[in-house]
Design a protein that fits this description.
The complex is a heterodimer of chains A (113) and B (114). Helices cover 0% and strands 51% of the residues of chain A. Chain A contains no helices and eleven strands. In chain A, strands 2, 4, 5, 6, 9, 10 and 11 form a seven-stranded mixed sheet that branches. In chain A, strands 1-3-8-7 form a four-stranded antiparallel sheet, with no helix packed on it. Chain A is globular. Chain B starts with a strand and ends with a strand. By secondary structure, chain B is an all-beta fold. Classes of the chains: A mainly beta (113), B mainly beta (114). At the A-B interface, strand 5, strand 9 and strand 10 of A face strand 5, strand 6 and strand 11 of B.
Amino acid sequence: DSGVTQTPKHLITATGQRVTLRCSPRSGDLSVYWYQQSLDQGLQFLIQYYNGEERAKGNILERFSAQQFPDLHSELNLSSLELGDSALYFCASSVESYTGELFFGEGSRLTVL
Amino acid sequence: AQTVTQSQPEMSVQEAETVTLSCTYDTSESDYYLFWYKQPPSRQMILVIRQEAYKQQNATENRFSVNFQKAAKSFSLKISDSQLGDAAMYFCAYRRTRSNDMRFGAGTRLTVKP
């Protein structure tokens, strides 16, 4: 158990809909990262927050947005969903913004029909 | 841009044998971290081993060890005495010091034969 909690574990929705994925980092971790893993692919970095502030953006679509709240949990919002958005979305956390390994949650599997 | 290449999409090993997974990376930085993550069928990403670029000594974690060749930008993972539970996708990852994101390779699927 990494200590990173993601909900929901599985989500099935239709094209055009909007979903929110939630992540609670490990206790004491200030940084939260979001990654997307499409079927049998590597992990693509989406976005990172540190103590409530956006720190880095990767290949995140404009239809996607995220935020980190004062209690440090984070939400990833995916809107106008397309079939290609079906993927496993991972949240990870770390103690500091710039150093060390990331601790991953179990992921949220999104299926868009 | 930093890229991570895993040239072996699939590997297999006999139980109790040794296998080496390859990883190369491209960077102009001198200070960075390298990682191997394991992703079993449960899909959880589990850290296997990490290496700081400034350390010349290769990292070791029980049956897992790395061969870090900084000049060649190579970072291979050796799994000794392979066990059935080692079957998983293995991802090599790079993170520049004072950088916000971690870059992953495409992964190597390891099969362990009984």
